[in-house]
Amino acid sequence: xxxxxxxxxxxxxxxxxxxxxxxxxxxxxxxxxxxxxxxxxxxxxxxxxxxxxxxxxxxxxxxxxxxxxxxxxxxxxxxxxxxxxxxxxxxxxxxxxxxxxxxxxxxxxxxxxxxxxxxxxxxxxxxxxxxxxxxxxxxxxxxxxxxxxxxxxxxxxxxxxxxxxxxxxxxxxxxxxxxxxxxxxxxxxxxxxxxxxxxxxxxxxxxxxxxxxxxxxxxxxxxxxxxxxxxxxxxxxxxxxxxxxxxxxxxxxxxxxxxxxxxxxxxxxxxxxxxxxxxxxxxxxxxxxxxxxxxxxxxxxxxxxxxxxxxxxxxxxxxxxxxxxxxxxxxxxxxxxxxxxxxxxxxxxxxxxxxxxxxxxxxxxxxxxxxxxxxx
Length: 376
Prior knowledge:
By secondary structure, the protein is of the alpha/beta class. It has two domains: 8-103 and 110-249, Type I PLP-dependent aspartate aminotransferase-like (Major domain) (Aspartate Aminotransferase, domain 2), CATH 3.40.640.10; 251-375, Alpha-Beta Complex (Aspartate Aminotransferase, domain 1). It contains twelve helices and 14 strands. The chain has helices spanning 8-29, 36-49, 60-69, 88-95, 117-120, 140-150, 207-216, 238-247, 251-269, 300-309, 339-347, 359-375; strands at residues 53-57, 78-82, 99-103, 125-129, 153-157, 165-167, 173-175, 182-186, 200-204, 221-223, 226-227, 275-276, 291-295, 348-351. β6 (165-167) and β7 form a beta hairpin. α2 runs parallel beside α8 (238-247) and α9 (251-269) runs parallel beside α12. The radius of gyration is 21 Å and the shape is globular.
């Protein structure tokens, strides 16, 4: 049996008739840039999230850059974000000549350690960018309180958590990406809501910011050939919007299927003392963009190699914390401040998870993992 990390083709086959029809419609209309499907998808996603504005763009990294551009930040302004994450968040910060300030994460949820944010704030701090890693929210209620106290903006990086719910202490809840001043997401094919190429979006309830973001994505222009600010050229293709339109009504179904798969993993792996299963926060649902465990007392590479021989893919998200990346070695970071990030990079391992998994596949994976541990 071959088990990839995700199975985009199986998902496509399930929706093939509708996806093919909608792609063909775009081609027949030849309305490839800012077509009606783009506008419709923006409105439908805004309705799903219960947010006032969704502005699509070329990819998730563009979304982060555009969100930061909308805040009129100055060179060397500081942006606080998670050290254990994909580099795109920090990359967008550095690209705009801002300074990324990294904060360690919690060992149980992998999300930014809220207790350490305040200590990282300086007079130059302007923004906090929490990353909702692997499918569950960072502690947004506490983050928003800190942001209010220090008059900071909050940009949520929700590329791995579209459809996730955050539960406030008063019993109310909001979707990930609708709590901060701005939020960004990616529609990379492997995401819970993914297209068949690159794509991204920015969310906000602030109409002034929304107007500015709409200009930035379109060369700083409201009216063609008249440019008010410096912008970029970052658009979601109409074909990709048509694909996302088809998939959006199924997002909750996909996320539920991932939770079922995660429960199967939980039950199997909790019986293996060398595996520490991921913890689900009390204040967040989990949509399991990744199913990531911690290994203890075992050679990670040997386990990966054993599973590879059985046709089972695994992945390491992430093998190096951002503060250690070569590109950031010109900035002095105290390695002792990132004990958890360093540890996680050495012992995390992610298993296949997607909406098309069945018990046969899950049993094959978990039996293979158990077989490995009976041999060591």
